[in-house]
Sequence to fold (220 residues):
Amino acid sequence: MRMRDTFIKPMHPEGRRFVGIFAAITLVLFLLWEPLGWIGVGLTIWCYYFFRDPERVVPNRPGLILSPADGVVSLIEPAVPPEELGMGPQPLTRVSVFMSVFNCHVNRAPAAGEVTAVNYRPGKFLNASLDKASSDNERNSLRMKLDSGHEIAVVQIAGLVARRILCWTATGTHLARGERFGLIRFGSRLDVYLPEGVAPEVKIGQTMIAGESVIAVLKD
Fold:
């Protein structure tokens, strides 16, 4: 890997117009007062960095369930999956990964399987690190039947400053493990509901990398 590649990452197409807007505002700020222009330069670089979309090395060991997001594990607890997914009233282990505005926000499939349901629900914009954000905030929920036969749910949750959830995956789509399926801007959270009887392999406070970090391992 070249040194340049360590710092310069590919940008997701969703970010191009935002970087363009930030750059245009920066030019105006330079015309008004040079110190403001340099602040604009810093914000433009941050905007590019927010929409970065680096390649990931997806582990291929069978049975792995990976983190769908970059960030920190904020909650691990039993919870009922979103009712709109029709997965029943039985609580499952929910692992929540909180993304700050400095994390990469491209979301990836935790495991290989078919998307059997996609459901968007409007809601509030509470701090995504709060437990009640799972039920009260705007969210987009995916139900997946894995190639192993297990079922999981993955939920994109908007946060305090997030105002747009993107999901370009439809019902019937087969996702590969680690494949990109969506994005949230600007700061948010991903919940993964594990199959019954599957224990998480992570702890609260642990840093996760989307498409690489292991959340749980399915048993044969």
The chain has two domains: 3-50, 64-217. Residues 64-217 form a domain with the Glucose Permease (Domain IIA) fold (CATH 2.70.70.10).
